[in-house]
Specification:
about 50% helix, 2 domains, disordered N terminus, 4-stranded antiparallel sheet, PH-domain like, alpha+beta
Length: about 190
């Protein structure tokens, strides 16, 4: 029963297209791709200052932890136990290239109707934020980010699930992006 209803609605749509002189020879996806051709997005990566900051934070936390653990275990439990202080160094050796891979995975692209944000090494995630759905665009910069001359752009949308963030931008680029996204968001939402 439901199949017949769906077909008759589709037949009515085809009849309506025939009345208006439209030719529907391909699928809906094919028709959309010919109506709105999209060029490949121009991706922009994050500046190297973000990678430098993250690696420095890794070293600042793990090297003192290694020294403290080694001294504490060496004095209290004996020199054999001090070898466990090498565990934070192993985490440092593993984390250094992982931070590089993570940094390489972040990129964003501004398109005509939306902003694309791509990230992730193991779990690749791509977020599409339509300009018309943006409610708030913030530029934030904590004390460590300010020291490295970095800022983050936070996008808030009507649906909390599509909120997005672009970390580690140069402050000038973050402000330019905020202004552009705000302008495009206002223009797109006014047309709704």
């Amino acid at each position: 029963m439901e199949t017949g209803t769906a077909r008759s609605a589709g037949d009515a749509g085809e009849a309506s297209d025939a009345e208006h002189g439209s030719d529907r020879t391909g699928s809906t996806e094919d028709a959309r791709s010919t109506e709105h051709p999209r060029a490949a997005p121009r991706w922009t990566g994050l500046p190297p200052g973000l990678l430098r900051m993250r690696r420095l934070l890794l070293v600042v936390w793990l090297v003192p932890l290694t020294i403290g653990t080694g001294l504490l275990l060496g004095l209290l439990a004996g020199p054999g136990w001090a070898a466990f202080a090498l565990l934070p160094l192993a985490v440092l050796a593993w984390g250094w290239p992982m931070l590089g891979r993570n940094w390489n995975s972040w990129r964003y692209a501004e398109r005509a109707d939306d902003l694309l944000i791509s990230r992730g090494v193991l779990w690749h995630e791509e977020t599409v934020v339509p300009y018309g759905r943006m409610q708030l665009v913030e530029v934030t910069s904590g004390p460590v980010e300010r020291h490295f001359k970095l800022a983050s752009v936070q996008l808030h949308t009507a649906a909390a699930a599509t909120d997005a963030r672009i970390p580690g931008l140069a402050p000038e680029e973050a402000e330019r992006l905020r202004d552009r996204l705000t302008e495009l968001g206002e223009a797109r939402s006014a047309g709704l």
